[in-house]
Amino acid sequence: MISLLRSEWTKFRSVRGWMIGIILAPLVTIGFGALTASANQCGYQYPLADGQIVSGGCSAPTGPGGELVQDQFYFAHQTLTGDGSITVRMTGLTSSSLQFWAKSGIIIKANTVPGSAYAAMMLTGAHGARFEWNYVNDVAGMPGLPSAQSPRWLRLTRSGDTIKGYDSADGARWTEVGAGTLAGLPSSVQVGMFAATPSAQQTVHASEAVTATGTFDHVAVSGDAAGSWQGTTVSPPPGMGAVGGPYTGFQRTATGFTVTGMGDIAPDVPGNNGGVSLPISHTLDGTFAGLIVVIVIGAIYITAEYRRGMIRTTFAATPARGQVLVAKAIVIGAVTFVAAAVGCALAIPIASHELRAGGNVIVPLSMLTYLRVVAGTALVFAGAAIFGLALGALFRRGVAAVTTGIVVVVVPYFLAVASPGLPTALDDWLMRVFPAAALAVQQTVPVYPQVPDAYEPFNGFFPLTALASLAVLIAWAGGALWLAARQLQRADA
Amino acid sequence: VSAAILHAEWTKARTLASTFWLLAGAVAATIPLSVAVAAGQNCQPGNCSADPAKMSLTGLYLGQTVVAVLGVLAVSGEYTAGLNIVTFAAMPLRTRVLGAKAVVLAGLVLPAAVVAVLGSLASGDALLPGRGFTTSHGFVSLSLDSATMLRVAFGSMLYLALIALLSLGIATAVRDAAVAIGLVLALLFLFPILVAFIHNAPLQRHLEQIAPMLAGMAVQETVNVPSQPLGPWAGLGVLALWAAGALLLGWFVLIRRDALPRQAPPYVLNIWFGFMRVTMMLADHAQVADGKLFISGGGWSTCGPGPTPCSVAVIFHVPWQRTNEKVEFSLRLVDEDGHPVAQPGPQGRPQPVAVNGQFEAGRPPGMTPGTEIGVPMSFGSVLHLPPGQRFSWVLEVAGHAEEDWRLSFATRSASASASAAE
Q: What is the phi/psi pair of residue A133, to 5°?
């Protein structure tokens, strides 16, 4: 087998066109990625009262866990020092256009700086009471919307770094919804009521300011709370989203308060309404250009032998034809893996640099995740090359093999991502069944149930997990290889 | 494009079983996908901006790949089978051959396109109104009774034909069929993926205007037509420019390949000139009279030392396809190492022994087509060659040499000639 591998490698190495192709694949991957990256701009620009133009790139605050977050809401707050609690009764959550994830309730937050640690007990537009902390954690409480007839009681208690959330229908019998540990929470924190709502997604006039208003009474803060209620618009950096202006604020009523706010307190998910971050997969937009190249090389690697009659010599030297095919698969797979790994390892920093230069925000990438994305994408390339090889052995005609390879690998992805008007169910099915599903290795941001959004391949989200998706790819490449080996044993060379 | 060439190309295309299966495959790939997409729609009034005409033709994304294969195989199939050489040998006028191929290809694709497009639109017409795409919501009716829908239907058929021509052009230029189809599909599908990932409206719009698939499919728009990057016919025009450009490139590569036969890969020439057989013989004397060779003392392989009369008799057996064409040849005397052998020239200076010439085999009137035509020639000289060495006469035709187009002989050693004299 070693000598077989060596002879197949020698064959591959000695054809100039194949070597050019295997170098071309990472180059087009980098090139296309850099091209789309350099074309993408993100930023804001608006005139001040004196006519001066203010502009800048996009940015997003970073949460306690290192992830990018959205942190924009209206906050009526007091300072609480040491342990304590806040209890309120809510009799309403209303909005000009009530969103499923409109939020209003009580919150304990390290300070009013966007991205700081918090824990909140809230009512939502369609998902009942929730206990959320530090952006990514979410626990469901009682269902239902509050009203004057059916109010909801909410409570947060602080004890050291631990904050517990409770809800109740009558203010007497309390249920603990959840507890969160906010590491390093300062002794003095801000405690109070808040309101936020993501803007409407499906409406025609998306620019209309959508606000949500929470109605509170029986407001009680226990512990060392000082000062009167203060109103603050917790807002992202300048230019990033509406700050609220005249639309938001808090008002004292006869029995309590109303707080009106806009924005969201949630992870900044790529493609999310109001979010700005781009997924890592956007630095690898050139993947498909590279995949086409390696499919062609994989197919020609064997069809060229058929065309020149070389295959007879090969099979005369090694009568076990299946072994020849396996040796070829190992050689083309390994060569492609190495070339693609180098290409992806370079494409990510190059395209990231281009994107940042255009003011874009990219989801943070740890070294381990970077290596995983590079290795995973290189595996997709290797799988595509082996798939092309197997199709070449199966059809013996370069045209048939390359066309089938591209139709199976590239066209479903094109239909799912770049062809508008397809039913979502079909999109989803395409990305589960065809080898392009394996691009799930490029997903680095988890799906958050509390962020209702466009979890689509375009935004770097894939229906399958990375491992399951690689299994799909292996099934295609392996299945085709198995069929090809069977065919080789039966047919004449 | 003459009728004869068209007929020849038509016959070739028609007799290939793959042609029929590919055309049927194009239809079979188009309609089911169109039906699946139409059946999966659920358009809520006021919340749906999709274009029903375009949607019911979604299957063309897949169908066009089969059409592209047909376009590539129309020319690449011949290269792999060596048939193209026959084409171009029989028809030196390559421009016309390429033109005939384009006409035949378009003629084959259009009927399949009619079936695929009308089938898709009919399924859309049957399914989409039940899924919210009704005329009362401002959507166009998919039945072919409006100028808009006639434009969509006719334009989509032309779209497929143009994709075939684009593929033909690229395959002519690239020659390796697998690489050619890879290039065509990359050209079609990479642009839209690229456009999807660019969040830059002006650049996106420009790409949509130049991408062959996106521009060509503009002909299917029925919603917000004025705000599209390109008008329907202008879009199809862009695709037509791509196809014309590809054909032009293919044509250019084709005629240049002819003008520089030495640069063509050896296997092309092998097949081309392999059709020409040559008979060669060494003789004391040879002469051509009345189109026949008269040879005396023929067939020797040793001579000398001393001055030796040496004639080379050659018959070029010109195949019918290569008649009425000027063919250049050269005959050179080389030594064992392949170096030219020099002999005293007219002024006593040594000159390499070589004959360069050309001939043209005419077709005598009334000759049966396909007949091989013999062109006899003779070259006489007196050689002064050193004893005890081997020499060869080497013939090249149009810069090409075959293994057996050579005559080898040896000069006797001085002692051998002395003993022979006794």
A: -145, 150
DSSP string, B25-91: HHHHHHHHHHHHHHHT----TTS----HHHHHTTTHHHHHHHHHHHHHHHHHHHHHHTHHHHHHHH-
Chain A (307-366) residues lying within 8 Å, Cβ to Cβ, of chain B: 307
Stated as kind and residue range, the H or E segment containing B285 is strand B277-289
Contact B280, B405 (CB under 8 A): yes
Would the CB atoms of B185 and A282 count as touching at under 8 Å? no
pLDDT of residue B268: 40
C-alpha–C-alpha distance, residues A179 and A172, integer Å:
20
For the question of whether the overall pTM of this predicted structure is more than 0.80, the answer is no
CA pair distance B14, B60, nearest whole angstrom? 24
Give me the residues of chain A with pLDDT under 50, please.
Answer: 202-207, 240, 242
Q: Which of A38, A58, A202, A402 to mutate to test the interface with B (most CBs of B within 10 A)?
A: A402
Q: Are B46 and B136 in contact, with CB atoms under 8 Å apart?
A: no
DSSP string, B223-265: SSGGGSSS-HHHHHHHHHHHHHHHHHHHHHHHHHHHH-GGGS-
Q: Report the candidate in A430, A433, A334, A434 with the shortest Cα–Cα distance to residue A379.
A: A334
Of A308 and B42, which is predicted with more confidence? B42
Distance of CA B63 to the CA centre of its chain: 24
For residue B179, give how far its alpha carbon lies from the nearest alpha carbon of chain A (Å): 6
Q: Rounded distance, CA B153 to CA B34, Å?
A: 14
CB–CB contact B178 A300 (8 Å): yes
Q: Is A300 on the interface with B (CB under 8 A)?
A: yes
Nearest Cβ partner for A289 among B36, B69, B190: B190
Q: Please state, as a whole number, how many other Cβ atoms lie within 10 Å of the Cβ of residue B420.
A: 8
Tokens of A353: 């640099």
Peptide bond into B305 cis (omega under 30): yes
Residue A53's CB: how many other CB atoms inside 10 A? Answer: 8
Distance CA B297, CA B285 (A): 7
State pLDDT tens for residues A98-133. 888 899 999 999 998 999 999 999 999 989 999 999
